[in-house]
Amino acid sequence: MIKKIKINELKIGMYIHDFNCSWVDHPFFTNSLKISNQMMMEKVIKAGIRELYIDTSKGLDTDLKTDQIPQSPPAPLKKKKKPVSVAAEIGRAVAIKKEAQQAVTGIMDDIKTGKPINTDKAENVVENIMSSVFRNQDALVSLLRIKQADEYTYMHSVSSCVLLSTFCNYLDIDKKLIREVAIGGLLHDIGKMRIPDTILNKPGKLSDIEYKLMKGHVKHGLNIIEQKPGINPIVMNIIAQHHERLDGSGYPNGLQGNEISKFGQMAAIVDIYDAMTSERCYRGRLQPTVVLKKIFEWGKSHFDKELVQQFIQCIGIYPVGTLVRLENGYLAVIINRGSKDMLHPTIRVIYNTKKEHYIQPYEIDLSKKSVGNGNSKIVGYESPDKWQIDTGAYL
After folding, report:
1. What is d(CA 275, CA 285) in angstroms, rounded to the nearest whole number?
2. Of 298, 350, 342, whose CA–CA distance to 326 is shortest?
3. I want to staple 337 with a disulfide (CB 3.0 to 4.6 A). Which of 135, 184, 250, 316 is the partner?
4. Are residue 281 and residue 184 in the same domain, yes or no?
5. How far is CA 373 from CA 296, 346, 349, 363, 369, in A?
6. Does a structural domain hold residue 271?
7. pTM of this prediction?
């Protein structure tokens, strides 16, 4: 039975059917889950939720005691080397971005002119990208979110490489495998070099014939990479499957479910995230929070639900570099996603919207309770373009 309860009635062992709030206002990646330990209880309470819905057929009812079920402790987290700060990594990330752009442009131009693919260039780029990601993933991820429409094809490849490296690292995948996945991300769109520029750069909607030609880039990419001996199957799968969808609605082969490899599924999530958060010749970029919400919704059919949840946790609901509005009307830039609570990151406050002027920047860690944080709750994201704010300058 579905029952509405007040937050003070919530107990360990209850199954939450609906949090009764927006998906960005609670700290979990699904609207329904079982409260299995005290840590989960505290997260719900800290989110400020006053009422929610429970399913008594899947968990405890309000008239049962919490001591009737065991309270399992949270699973221990694997310790990772503490990353350097974004500020410490940003300089190296800028240099790596420039180097990667030049390398990918060279690789793509070689393919356009019929030359064999230069995998040595790709491998060198990947090594540098992985090193930066391992030091601090947010520096490169935030930098590469800003790209011009006319450089999209090249920089999308670099971004996909960075995002896949980041995603794999978050999942504790072996570094040797990350390397192959990252190469796959860097080369996943090489088949577009066989697509006419008039279609790639068309400012409007593609016709049915043009869209059919565009979808051919996957098979073109496979044909190109197959000419190079010794390519890892992981790379092949990413090129072949980054447009496949779990429900069979993708292309080129309409694969379903487990017919799509795990890395192919990860590449599909990364590909659409970067595409939608980028400036395109036919539309403006969408804010990361909007795109993550859409991907979360598509997780019911297009993408693996668990992988989607893990990607959101990896990137953060408000990724580093996102411009947000605070309850007091100030604007701030996310400078640290927050390792324990994505709804309470560290921010750098920079602008007063009420007086319409910049202020002396100052930082607030929203995960720490203090008197000064009273009006600093994030109420939503803002478009940097609207306010003409270069968020990268404040990282």
Report:
1. 8
2. 350
3. 316
4. yes
5. 30, 11, 12, 11, 7
6. yes
7. 0.80
